[in-house]
Each structure stands twice: as C-alpha cells, then as structure tokens.
Design a protein that fits this description.
CATH architecture of the largest domain: 2-Layer Sandwich
CATH superfamily of the largest domain: Bira Bifunctional Protein, Domain 2
Structural class: alpha+beta
Order of helices and strands: EHEEHEEEHEEEEHHHEHHEEEHHH
Number of strands: 14
Number of helices: 11
Distance between the termini: 52 Å
Mean pLDDT: 90
Strand content: 25-35%
Length: about 350
C-alpha cells in the first residue's frame, strides 16, 4: 500500500486530490489529510437542505460536494480525514476498512466499533467519532473490455473539532435524528482527544495525524509525495469541477412536487414533474449510497407511467440497488406515487 502525504487544507483541492488518485493510481493507497473549516456534503444530497449557508458565510466555512454518497460532515483543523483507494473495487465494503482504524485507535487507548451503515462509535457509550462513505469510481475499460472500477473509502476522525460550530452549520433532517433517538448533532458525537490514554494527553491534531502516518508506515505502507506535475493536475481539476456552482448545487432544484422519507438505508427525497399520467422530470436526493450514478436511474424513469405497478417493474429492471443501496422497488415506487399525488 502507498501512503500519500498531503499537508494542504483547501477542501476543494483535497476533493480533487482524491479524484486524481482514483484516476491515476495502480496500487492500493491511503491518504491522511485535514481541511480548513468546511462542510462536505454527499454526492446525492441537496446542499440547500443540509447546510445553514448564512452561518457558513459569516464564519468563513466552505461548502464542497464529494464523490461519495452519505450525509454532510463538518471538517476543521481538529478533524483528521483518511482515504483508502483500492483498484478493481466492485462493491461497497464498509466493514473491511474499519479494522486498521480500530487498531490505530486502540494504540491510544480508545475502543471503537462499526455502527449502523457507516459510523464508528466509541465503546461502550456509543458516541460517534467517525463517519465513513464509499463510492465506486469508473476509470474506463480493462484490456478485456470489462469496466475498470476503483473503490474509494474515506472517513472523518473527530479529534479536537469545534463541535458547537459543527452543530450550528449542519441542518440534518429531524426525522433522521429522531430515528436514532438523539436530539441534536452535537449530542451524539465525541472528540477523540477527550478519550486518550494519560500518556497521550498532550497530543494535538497534528500529532494525531503524524501518529496515523507512522501507524501505516509501520504496517508496511510506502511513503509517497506528489510531484509538481501531479499538483498542477490537481489544481486544474479543483478549478474545473470542485469549485464550481454546477458541481456544488447539481440539479436538485428541478421538480414541482417533492416527497421525502427516511428508510433504514438512508433518507430519500424525490422531486418530480408530471405531464398527465407520465413522468417528465425526476430527481433523487438524500444521504443514501450507491455504486452507480443516480442520473442513470432518473433517466430510466423519464416517460414512465405514473402507476405503482409500472414503476415497480421499471425500478426492478433498472437495477435499483446499484443506485440506492438497500432500497426495494416497492419502497421507491410508493414514494414516487406519493410525490405525484
């Protein structure tokens, strides 16, 4: 495994750095990084429903969309982030990447466990210290013509983050919090710095990042640094994509009818426009995961008859679970019908 060193804190550039590695690496790799204050939203989320934009603007907090699904997370210099990139990844596999993080934290006297879809929580009190997300990145074709896919797994580690700022800038769905039996974002999270063994009591976020780098190097990772040519390509990608309003806002404003529901696999909002008995426009948003781009599912539904049975058939034929992992055609068809009524 390669360990890529990244000391930059520009959130737009760090998103571009992940995609650059997805495009170029031929070996498994890991990268540790930090952001200046930012909210990083999931690929399928509507930014305007996840973030207090006024608060973010007043407090110099950037807002950026990432490649993976899942929910919005707050980053600052007290938050250490990790990215694993694996060639030829073909399926989401959250549990496989929890092990190294659990082992590294155990070395500091902290016990954590995988909880729900994609959280790491402290043991035994169950407070969240890490949220993870994944995506499958299409890199082109293998020599035999089959698709070449890369797996990105990345996560946050709350070390000494400003939890009051995090609570103020994130505006999660109240139904999501209620489903987890909690009152607020702040009430369910904990900074790892408060849980360190006494011998590590003076550890800073920067020390923690260096500790994790050493952990991976001691585990056999090979140290790597970006060349000037790499940096130029990353800068270009950040400008062309991640800094643009088109990438941040997407097309989630379309549709005159909206319906949202919380499922075990995440929150799904459907926005649609109908002409008589047929769908003319439809878009999905939410904190769900999937291995294929949601746009393909949306396109497959345009022109479909607005009847439950027809929608179930269309969704099943499209391979729904590739776009919204864990969803059944029955559930999404019912949601579309509710939105249309």
């Amino acid at each position: 495994m390669l360990l890529w060193h990244n000391d930059g804190r520009d959130p737009f550039r760090n998103m571009a750095t992940e995609e650059f590695l997805l495009m170029t690496t031929k070996e498994p790799c890991v990268m540790l990084w930090q952001n200046d204050p930012a909210v990083v939203i999931g690929k399928n989320q509507d930014a305007r429903s996840e973030v207090d934009f006024d608060f973010a603007s007043r407090n110099g907090i950037k807002i950026v969309r990432r490649l993976s699904g899942g929910g919005a997370v707050f980053h600052d210099k007290g938050n250490i982030n990790y990215s694993f990139i694996i060639p030829d990844g073909a399926a989401l596999q959250f549990a496989a990447f929890a092990g190294p993080i659990q082992e590294a934290l155990a070395g500091l006297g902290i016990s954590v466990a995988l909880s729900g879809r994609n959280d790491l929580v402290t043991v035994p009190d169950g407070r969240k210290c890490s949220g993870t997300a994944e995506c499958i990145y299409n890199k082109g074709k293998n020599p035999d013509g089959s698709p070449r896919k890369m797996l990105l797994h990345h996560g946050t580690l709350l070390f000494s983050a400003e939890l009051s700022i995090m609570s103020a800038v994130l505006t999660p769905d109240k139904e999501k919090l209620s489903a987890k039996g909690i009152r607020s974002v702040k009430s369910r999270v904990v900074n790892l710095q408060t849980l360190l063994s006494p011998e590590y009591a003076d550890m800073t976020a920067e020390d923690f990042k260096r500790y994790l780098e050493k952990f991976f190097l001691d585990s056999g990772a090979v140290s790597m640094r970006f060349s000037p040519q790499d940096s130029s390509a990353i800068d270009s990608l950040a400008e062309r994509k991640y800094r643009t309003e088109a990438w941040l806002y997407g097309s989630f404003a379309s549709g005159e009818k909206i319906k949202k529901r919380r499922f075990d696999f995440g929150t799904v909002s459907v926005m649609l426009r109908a002409d008589g008995t047929r769908l003319r426009e439809i878009s999905f948003a939410g904190d769900f995961f999937g291995i294929d781009d949601i746009g393909a599912l949306e396109n497959s539904l345009v022109g479909a008859k607005l009847s439950y049975d027809t929608l179930v058939e269309t969704l099943a034929a499209s391979g729904l679970s590739r776009y919204i992992a864990g969803a059944s055609p029955d559930e999404i068809a019912a949601l579309i019908c509710e939105a249309a009524n």
